[in-house]
Structures are given as structure tokens and as C-alpha cells.
Amino acid sequence: MIIGLISDTHDNVPMIKRAIERLKEERVKLVLHAGDYISPFTAKPYAELGVPMIGVFGNNCAETEALKKVYADVGADLRGYFAKIEKGGLMIALTHGHLKSEMDRAMSGDYDVVVRGHVHRTSIGEENGILVINPGEVCGYVSGSNTIAFLDTEKRFAWISEL
Question: How confident is the model at residue 47 (pLDDT cuts 50, 70, 90)?
């Protein structure tokens, strides 16, 4: 199974739409969003995604109740600041990465994969046997790059894609 990984979209609707196009090109079966949507108006493009999306809030998500509602309206499940997902035989921790307590939980050894955002830099690495992935930023505001990532659950392999 291929899972699409995105983070730090920060209201950049044109790049959100491009990310959705890229996710569809790769025929992902699930999308995980590691937070920082920012405004409720950003939900609308995800109606075109065509697969389930699970997300968590980031440090810039002030309107959490409104975000939860409008994202639910387009079929996305926002689960607070931490989500535990079991897919393709892997236990996946999804968190934005700004809360030490949530990162400690994610890195506890109970998970095969940790998906995080917050720092706006792409990274894929192994820490204590855990595959840790940061897809970077869709928005491109901090790094100047617009990126997403993909996770192949069968191969336990991830890669970064420029948008």
C-alpha cells in the first residue's frame, strides 16, 4: 500500500491542489497530514482527493473545532495532536512534532513509523529501528521547496517528491 504524507500546507491553496494532483498520480490509498492547515477554507480542495485522509493539528491551528468540522465535511478525520494508525502491517504515529510529549510518545518504541512535520524540512531516517519521515512543507514559505512524501508499507520505504 502506498500512503501519501503531507504537512505544513499553511493556507497555500494552489500548492494544496498541486499536492492533491500528485497524490492522485501516485494512486495512494490513504493520506496522512501532519498538521498546520491554518484556516478552515483550506478544506475544500480535499474533497477531490478520493481517498481517506487522517490528520493532526499543528502549532498554528488555532481554530481546531472549525477545522475538525470542515475537514470532516470533505471526508477527512482530524484527530487532535496525535494519531495512531495501523495500515499495511505497520503501526504509524502521526504528530506535528511541536509537542515534546507527543514526540516522546511517537518515539516510545510502540511504532514502526513516525510521520511528523513542523520544521519545514524533508527528512527520512531511522532512529532506534523506527522509520521517521518528515515530508517537508507543501506551502514552500520557509524552505522555498514544495514537497510531499510517500510511504510504501510493504517495502517499509519512503521517498520525497517535489511538487
Answer: very high
Domain count across the chain: 1
Q: Give the separation between CA 62 and CA 38, rounded to whole angstroms.
A: 7
Q: What is the span of the domain harbouring residue 122?
A: 2-162
What tens digit of pLDDT does each residue of 62-119 get? 999 999 999 999 999 999 999 999 999 999 999 999 999 999 999 999 999 999 999 9
pLDDT recorded at residue 109: 97
With b meaning 16 or more CB within 10 Å and e meaning fewer, what string describes 141-158? eeeebbbbbbbebeeeeb
Q: Residue 34 has which C-alpha cell?
A: 501532519
Nearest 5°: the CA angle 142, 39, 95 is 65
Statement: the pTM of the whole predicted model exceeds 0.85: yes
CATH code for position 32: 3.60.21.10
